[in-house]
Amino acid sequence: MEAIVPYAIWGSLILTGLSIIAIVLFGIRSLAHGKVNPLSIGTLVVPALVLIGFRFVLQSWAEAAIWTFLVMLVLSLLALLLSSARGMLGL
Q1: How far apart are CA 46 and CA 71, in angstroms?
Q2: What CA–CA distance (Å, rounded) separates 9 from 13?
Q3: Which residues contact 61 (CB under 8 A, 6 or more apart)?
Q4: Cα dist from 18 to 11, 12, 41, 45, 77, whole Å
Q5: Do 82 and 72 form a contact (C-beta atoms < 8 A)?
Q6: 61 neighbors 55 (Cβ within 8 angstroms)
Q7: What predicted TM-score, i.e. pTM, was given to this entire model?
Q8: Distance from C-alpha of 78 to C-alpha of 73, rounded to nearest angstrom
Q9: What CA–CA distance (Å, rounded) separates 6 from 15?
Q10: Rounded to an integer, what distance in angstroms lies between the CA atom of residue 49 and that of residue 81?
């Protein structure tokens, strides 16, 4: 049973990689056909750019991922706060 574990891990990593490639390809296709607002694609790219930026500044991918999570959490909380304030004030 222990011999299956490495194959299961590699299988799940390969499936995850193929899924990410499919998501990117279908996103590009939808963008090319005009089915998607470019701004919504930009919001998906921001975390990746933040992660890459932190990787160049920090020592490891793990630290970069943690800082990316924290920064994106703060940005999402600020967006939620601003959206709520805008709705409450009727702007």
Answers
A1: 11
A2: 6
A3: 55
A4: 11, 10, 19, 18, 31
A5: no
A6: yes
A7: 0.64
A8: 9
A9: 14
A10: 23
Q: How far is it, in rounded angstroms, from Cα 19 to Cα 27? A: 12
Rounded to an integer, what distance in angstroms lies between the CA atom of residue 8 and that of residue 70? 31
2's tokens: 């222990």
What count of other Cβ atoms lies within 10 Å of the Cβ of residue 66? 13
Residue in the block written with tokens 């959490």 = 73
pLDDT tens track for 32-88: 888 888 888 778 889 999 999 999 999 899 999 999 999 999 999 999 999 998 888
User: Per-domain residue ranges for the chain?
Assistant: 1-36, 37-91
